Amino acid sequence: MSRRICVVTGTRAEFGLLRWLMEDIASAPDLELQVIATGAHLSPEFGLTHREIEAAGFEIDARVEMLLSADTATAISKSMGLGMIGLGDAYARLSPDLVILLGDRYEILAAAAAALVARLPVAHLHGGETTEGAIDEAIRHAVTKMSHLHFVAAEPYRERVIQLGEHPDRVFNVGGLGVDAIRRMPLLGRAELEAELGFEFDLRNLLITFHPVTLADEGSSMRQMAELLEALDGLRDTRLIFTMPNADTGGRELMEMLEHFTASRANAHLYPSLGQHRYLSCMQFVDGVVGNSSSGLAEAPSMGVGTINIGERQRGRLRAASVIDCRADREAIRNALNRLYSPAFREQLASAVSPYGTGGASAEIVRVISRHPLEGILNKSFFEVAGSSNQAGANS
């Protein structure tokens, strides 16, 4: 009897990482894929990216509306509540054998909590990572504790999940899912991409994504965005390709700033969602990825593309030598841009090594979820790391 594997996705970036795993699940003879779309996927404001799921050939088994037309802390909390209600109903109807969740967003916290009370086993992807400048940090570790199988992107992340009390036999270092996408997806050529995007690349081009810094003081994200736009404003000989920020607290204010900036500049273009195919296709033709998105750390190094990582949002993540960290002020960003284009930095890009492996994550995840026993998996005991005070007390 095949196992019903339910993948929950709430954002464009998350689906981009999950896509190849979903394909491998769908093609596995002993697995049945179920798909739940929620969050920004169902919002016109964020590009109705559930269409990208369907365009990739997947059937959506449940649509869970949860995103309110506001991004205050109160609205996000209400969205999480709506998500738990809708996901609980969806789980009851689909009756999956295993739920797959990726990452650290509030939609995923709602999905994990609903699965916990429904007594459904959860496989969590990309746990153990740290992003000290965002609420994602706490959410990620909370989802880890509500999950039963763990697939991490690097050995330090595996060690951290075990440190959180998860048994080593249930924690698997498979590498980054974004690397799989780069290895497996045929990217668009320059002319085809330019036709789809409606503009031509120039001699210099930058791909820019800046998300709200959710643990910063109120108004900090807007101030940081203003500094970034001021630093970019003088780049008249450079094409600026912006993607919209996440549906996080303060995200809509950043969208308004981007809309105003790009409306009056012929070299700046704003897209609600490029989708992973066009996003990675863009990446191969740009000089650098700029902003505070995890893609600059997880995917760009595997494509030999430099990254300017701004501010604290991604603090704590593993990074390659192709990543330039800088403060969120215009002078620091300008200095980082100068370094990005310096001959010495350009020369080292080809030899930069990604800490997230060389591919194969999806196949390994499918191998494990096809074979790992699920009977009794809900009953977890806290694994004590050797040398801890609790372990010492237990052995005395």
The mean pLDDT is 91
The best one-word shape is globular
Amino- and carboxy-terminal Cα gap: 46 Å
The CATH homologous superfamily of the largest domain is called Glycogen Phosphorylase B
Enumerate the strands of the largest sheet in spatial order, edge to edge or round the barrel: 3-2-1-4-5-6-7
Number of domains: 2
Please provide the ordered H/E string of secondary-structure elements. EHEHEHEHEHEHEHHEHEHEHEHEEHHHH
Largest sheet: 7 strands, parallel
Broad CATH class of the largest domain: Alpha Beta
Give me a quick take on this structure.
With 396 residues, the protein is α/β, with parallel strands linked by helices. It has helices at residues 12-27, 50-55, 73-94, 106-117, 136-145, 155-163, 177-184, 190-197, 220-233, 251-263, 275-283, 295-298, 330-340, 343-348, 361-371, 389-395, and strands spanning 3-9, 31-38, 62-64, 98-102, 122-125, 149-152, 171-173, 204-209, 238-243, 268-271, 288-291, 306-310, 323-326.
